[in-house]
Amino acid sequence: MRKNKISAFIPVQDVEDIIEDCLKSITWVDEIFIVDAFSKDRTVEICRKFPNVKIVQHEYENSGAQRTWGMPKVSNEWVLIIDSDERCTPELQTEIEKILAMDKIPFDGYLVYLKTKFWGKIQNHDRHLGYQGMRLVKREAYKEYNLRSVHSTLDIKNRSRIKNKDAYIIHIPIRDFKSHWNKMVRYATWQANDMFNKGKKTNLFHFIFRPSYKFIHHYFFRLGFLDGIRGLILCWIASISVFMKYYKLFIMRNE
Asked: For the chain, what is the domain count?
């Protein structure tokens, strides 16, 4: 029996094609709290069809900023952080329910496994294909965000992890070539802006060795090759993303 209530927290913007599957995977939570960045499609309309949904709107800056703005406003002490391109598996629901059934939960946050689904198949190796994120947290955890334009992180010291490797969030970051390419360009720009503001510069090392190391490290040492052609593609994408952010920084420094 659940003794602690939980909210799911989702930042959204123009995701009418994927948000319904995300919401279907979390109908078991007590509240679905959505921060919409003024979507221009049917995202909000679709979200309103689900029970226990609360929608607020806030101009988008980056994912971390949306979370630090919105998480204090959720109704419950525990929060499942999930994105619109992610799905909660039934096995993960079961593990979370076990935690919520405790009289006193001993930790402030739990790391959760995430696995990438790429063109219909779950990828099981490499941190880009299967990794962990701080996704089950107390509401007050928003104060512990290390904010970045891309991939802000939560630094919770009193933490544990959901150890069942069959309990994970499915991440589906690539739906089509065009939207994914635009996302890579957007992320490269944001990362370059962060580096530019910190006074960083580029040199040959960044263009030759950083992308190469990214591929070699994740494809060979982190066993991305075990996921076949999909693993090869995803590790190359990670390498290209590194090149793109330094390319953008180079342009910014020489404009």
From this structure: 2
Q: What is the span of the domain harbouring residue 61?
A: 6-171
> Is residue 1 a part of any domain in this protein?
no
112 and 214 in contact (C-beta within 8 Å)? no
- Evaluate whether residue 39 is within a structural domain: yes
| pTM for this entry | 0.88
> What gap in Å lies between CA 121 and CA 118, rounded to an integer?
5
Q: Is residue 63 part of a domain?
A: yes
pLDDT in tens, 104-119: 999 999 999 999 999 8
Over the range 160-197, which residues count as b (16 or more CB within 10 Å of their CB) and which as e? eebeeeebbbbbbbbeeeeeeeeebeebbbbbbbbbee
Do 132 and 231 fall within a single domain? Answer: no
Tell whether the model's pLDDT for residue 126 goes beyond 70. Answer: no
